[in-house]
Specification:
alpha/beta, homodimer, five-stranded mixed beta sheet, seven-stranded mixed beta sheet
């Protein structure tokens, strides 16, 4: 039986490309309308895993998924990175000169601003997502309609690439978490590195120096932090939950001691997962539109 | 000549209510389509000030405005808080039983989820903003149409309140910055407290312990941090800019020394402004829909 992997959005979305690259071609992708539904079906065991975008190097954090990590009992077992390449996509036979209205997610449209300035005859039209915009222009005949999306969405719906790489800034990467329910089986997946990374979430008393003390727990043990994110706590205005990623495994003594030290004064600490992480070098990242890799050769962990 | 204050959205938006509460009834409100335009017209001197929502206690930070603070040369000269109360609003004469489709911003619709569960005959419809939804149902005749927005929007467009306070969570506050261009004149405004607060933005070398050292600069001088926010740096994937708010004025010796200390190792430090801040007690905050205060009695600073 193939692995059931939940994702948010339409088939052909960047999430589905990341899932195939990470988990191979043989998986069964289960589309969900919302991130909340994606977390819920994975928690209930209706899917074996889900792939959640967590941050983008231009847009910032996908804050719904930070909040959902706190509300659901899923474990992070892997991460992957995808370089986001935007393309102008239309039904086969459409010429560039015929295009007038261009559908896509507002974030994708905003990342192709220079392209629209240089092409004043084109009108950007906001839609719910990138892959769904390709689906739309393929299914609903509309003269002059095109979409902005990844090359993978064009493949999935049999559409044509009119222009490739039309984004303003090529330093555009999305980081995804591979999540399973607590106690579930870790599927085999591709991860180009063996170094371990851990994500935790914690809350602190609202007093002077509390964040300093939390940072000291790690710095005094030379544990490298790679990311900190704060999110508001519902019901406690102007108080925050902190999400922290660092290099290390809770079974290493210095990491175990750091977590015990943090628990001495934090009002709550939860380990969200420890996982082999993707490469830090942008040049080594997957690029959306590269040929898809076959199923991964090595099991995880 | 009355003070020209730029805001994003439609008249009646929560921003315009916050502007009137903070700056009085006599101001001239200048609507802008985007936050970017709001920053630009203020920077060019076409407006004397603008009011930027910066974070909400349920939704989190307004990321665009953090990024715009970095890209534009505006100074924060004040802050205010508004409790967000959502109401069901319709053209006068409409009864609750007649309502079928309810327009509002997706965030506002999401904050009234319980209301929609209890009223299955109502269909939420996503729109660009809350006040604009009231404007729409008043201007375009459509049987069964209502909107979710603040009471102030109902007043502005002469609509009726069908139900008040339909939000799931009353601990819903938005914090706004009052911004002027660098070197501009600080307008008089209401601020219920005299304690000074400072906002800065800084970047750090990507090495172990750098955030710890930045936190130490403040903690070792017992300076109280109220908020930290990280944002991705464009063109440098997986590196972050940090926004920090703390209680204190750069002219105080310990604060001046902390900022000089931070500059010793930070790769960039900029003070975004020092300002009298709003009250920390939610019970003392303005509530959307309270009677509007007259023009403020005391000049600022």
């Amino acid at each position: 039986m193939s692995l059931r992997v939940a994702f948010q959005g339409e088939r052909g979305a960047f999430s589905t490309e990341a899932a195939h690259r990470m988990l191979g071609r043989e998986i069964e992708l289960v589309p969900c309308e919302t991130f909340e539904e994606m977390f819920a079906v994975t928690e209930r065991g209706e899917c074996d895993a889900c792939l959640a975008p967590i941050e983008n190097t231009l847009f910032g954090p996908v804050y719904q998924n930070f909040d959902l990590l706190l509300r659901h009992h899923l474990t992070i077992v892997g991460e992957t990175y995808l370089r986001i390449v935007h393309n102008l996509i239309a039904p086969p036979g459409t010429t560039l000169a015929e295009v007038r209205q261009v559908y896509s997610h507002p974030v994708a449209l905003g990342q192709c601003r220079r392209f629209f300035v240089q092409s004043p005859q084109l009108r950007p039209v906001a839609a719910a997502d990138t892959a769904g915009s390709v689906k739309r222009v393929m299914e609903i005949p509309e003269p002059g309609a095109a979409a902005i999306a990844g090359r993978y969405a064009a493949e999935v719906y049999g559409a044509s690439l009119l222009l490739e790489g039309i984004e303003d800034d090529p330093q555009n990467f999305t980081r995804f978490f591979l999540l399973i329910r607590e106690g579930g089986t870790i599927p085999p997946f591709s991860a180009p590195s063996e170094v371990n990374k851990t994500s935790i979430v914690f809350t602190l008393e609202n007093r002077t120096g509390s964040l300093y003390r939390a940072m000291a727990v790690f710095a005094l043990r030379e544990i490298d932090l790679t990311k900190i994110e704060s999110r508001p706590i519902h019901g406690r205005p102007w108080e925050y939950t902190f999400y922290l990623d660092f290099l290390g495994h809770p079974e290493e003594l210095r990491v175990a001691r750091a977590l015990a030290h943090l628990a001495e004064f934090a009002t709550g600490v939860r380990v969200l997962g420890t996982y082999r992480h993707g490469p830090a070098q942008p040049s080594l990242l997957f690029e959306s539109g590269e040929p898809l890799v076959p199923a991964p050769p090595t099991p995880s962990c």
